[in-house]
Design a protein that fits this description.
With about 600 residues, this protein is of the alpha/beta class. The protein has 21 helices and eight strands.
């Protein structure tokens, strides 16, 4: 593996330690971390559940630390130790870096906030470690001037400095409390890539909340840490640094070295050597001791790996919340459209479809008055009347069919409109649902714009299927002659009327008419097919209609379902993530 060859200049103890680290790089832990990186990156967390923004930040930080630090550090354990210098606005990070290097390599910001590229300084012999994408692969490399002004820096400026000791690199990060969001995000990313944090604050800023939030992160991840108290006024010496030490102790960071840089006049734009001596001496001792550097790397890497289980558990809980929200949003939609299906099923069975125009056209089709009174005793006469209606006027069934089509189409359109409005109303009561409604490019509280066309197509297809049922049933040799007399279209219309001619939804005189209509259609059909065949035809016709209703409403509901599917964790992603976290823990425990 590239970069893992033993350095012959290392002392025996350090060489042995590096050997052990190299062995660990070839252990299952590295494979587990790579899988965790991929599994974590697959979690979209796009539903606006409570805490979703924090969960996305946790996901991004986890992926970044795996990519920027843990995986490359395990792959190449003997790479130079990376010291990231971070801190608050105006803490003097760049000035400190310039003083440590011995010349200006990082431009100190005069205006705040300063937006520029982070600067990575290293010995020329270590250039090969940093020109590639071993660490911070998302940042482009540049060796040119700093990026200043209004454009956020998303590149890493590389500076080779012979004054630095080989095996140690300094990275000047943006301000952690910058007013520029991209600065803050980049600062956190760079700190997560560090073997060692050199945290710079001042006598005026050391108690600020933002730095302490990140210092607690360092504690939770067991990141190696040193704190620099910069620009320390001589009159406050002893008081401020003692208070800062108390704060560090209280936060469980009492072991972190506290290095004090006194306030001093700049000489040629840089701090005098005497002012930065505490920091230079401490870093110099670390740089000269390969065993100490290896121990710092081991401590930070172990702490980062150990923290993955807790952070993974937090992220898994957030994913669970996303999946639960997706289920609830889907259930709200399904409930609304199931209710619409039930309404359609009820209204195609209770006679309400035979109101008004359909009843009138039916009476014109088969005749009224004497026909109804003599039906039982003169079924042959009835048949003659129907035959005359069908064969004498080839389009006699057409008005009935047209009226039924209109009523059915209206029923389906209204059902889809009610379902969409109900589903959208349910979503509007939730933050995640409101976000999806806003994200949609169409108004979800109304049925799809083409609902009328699709309803018309569905009913037309169903009517054709009813006629095919009639043709198939009329295939019997004794029924062929009867069917020929009535006509397929006429018999189909009679079958449809029979299917709808119940009285549940009618009132007053409509009940008597519909009841008579049912009797007429039933007798006519029995005359053609027989009573058993009529029952079978009715069942098949109803099932076919409800199937088309289901398809139409399902297509309309799909708009909602697709929004949920696009935002929710993909199938299998959660299980994969949990398995990856478990694999990392198992590999860590086995080391």
């Amino acid at each position: 593996m590239a970069g893992l060859e033993r350095d012959p200049t290392l002392p025996p103890a350090a060489a042995e330690h590096m050997t052990q680290l190299q062995k660990s790089a070839q252990s299952p832990l590295l494979a587990a971390l790579r899988e965790l990186r991929s599994a974590t990156a697959e979690l979209p967390l796009n539903l606006q559940t409570p805490g979703a923004a924090d969960a996305r930040a946790l996901r991004d930080q986890l992926v970044a630390q795996l990519e920027d630090y843990l995986i490359p550090r395990l792959e190449q354990q003997d790479a130079p130790m990376l010291v990231v210098i971070g801190g608050s606005t105006g803490a003097g990070k760049s000035t400190l870096v310039n003083a440590l290097v011995g010349h200006e390599v990082s431009q100190a910001g005069v205006l705040r906030p300063t937006t520029r590229s982070p600067v990575l300084v290293f010995h020329p012999d270590d250039t090969g470690w940093f020109t590639g994408d071993r660490i911070l692969p998302g940042l482009a490399r540049t060796t040119g001037p700093e990026v200043a002004g209004d454009q956020p820096g998303r590149s890493l400026r590389l500076v080779a400095a012979p004054s630095l000791t080989p095996g140690l690199a300094l990275l000047d990060a943006p301000d952690i409390d910058s007013l520029v969001e991209t600065n803050r995000e980049l600062a956190v990313q760079l700190l997560a890539a560090a073997d060692l944090w050199l945290f710079v604050t001042t006598a005026a800023r050391y108690a600020d909340a933002v730095p302490w939030d990140l210092l607690r992160v360092a504690r939770e991840r067991a990141t190696a840490l040193a704190v620099v108290l910069d620009r320390m006024p001589s009159e406050a010496l002893g008081e401020v640094d003692a208070h800062l030490r108390q704060l560090l102790d209280r936060e469980g960071l009492g072991d972190a070295p506290l290095l004090v840089v006194p306030e001093a006049r700049l000489q040629n734009g840089r701090l005098p050597d005497s002012a930065v001596a505490p920091v230079r001496d401490w870093i110099g001792a670390l740089a000269a001791d390969a065993s100490a550097r290896a121990e710092v790397i081991r401590s930070t890497m172990t702490g980062a790996v150990n923290s993955l289980q807790l952070r993974g558990a937090g992220l898994a809980s957030a994913v669970d919340a996303q999946e639960q929200a997706a289920r609830e949003l889907t259930q709200a939609v399904d409930g609304a459209y199931d209710q619409a299906r039930a309404t359609v099923g009820r209204e195609v069975s209770d006679g309400t479809l035979l109101r008004g125009e359909v009843l009138a056209r039916w009476q014109e089709f088969v005749g009224t008055g004497e026909l109804m009174r003599t039906l039982e005793s003169r079924i042959g006469w009835v048949r003659d009347r129907v035959v005359a209606a069908v064969t004498g006027r080839p389009s006699g069934a057409a008005p009935v069919e047209a009226a039924l089509e209109m009523n059915l189409q209206g029923l389906l359109r209204d059902a889809a409109e009610r379902a969409a409005a109900t589903a959208a109303a349910a979503w509007s009561t939730r933050s995640d649902g409101q976000a999806l409604l806003t994200r949609s490019t169409t108004k979800l509280d109304r049925a799809a714009a083409d609902i009328a066309t699709r309803a018309e197509d569905a009913i037309g297809t169903w009517q054709g299927e009813v006629l095919e049922l009639v043709r198939a049933e009329g295939g019997d040799r004794r029924q062929l002659a009867k069917l020929a007399s009535y006509g397929v279209n006429g018999a189909g219309s009679v079958l449809i009327v029979a299917l709808f001619a119940n009285t549940g939804g009618l009132t007053g005189g409509e009940i008597a008419i519909a009841g008579g209509t049912a009797a007429v259609s039933q007798k006519v059909l029995e005359a053609i097919f027989g009573d058993q065949a009529v029952r079978s035809l009715a069942v098949q016709a109803r099932q076919a209609l409800l199937r088309h209703v289901d398809e139409l409403l399902a297509a309309d509901a799909r708009r909602f379902h697709e929004l949920v599917a696009d935002a929710a964790p993909p199938d299998g992603a959660t299980a994969r993530f949990r398995a990856a976290v478990h694999a990392v823990e198992a590999a860590r425990a086995a080391r």
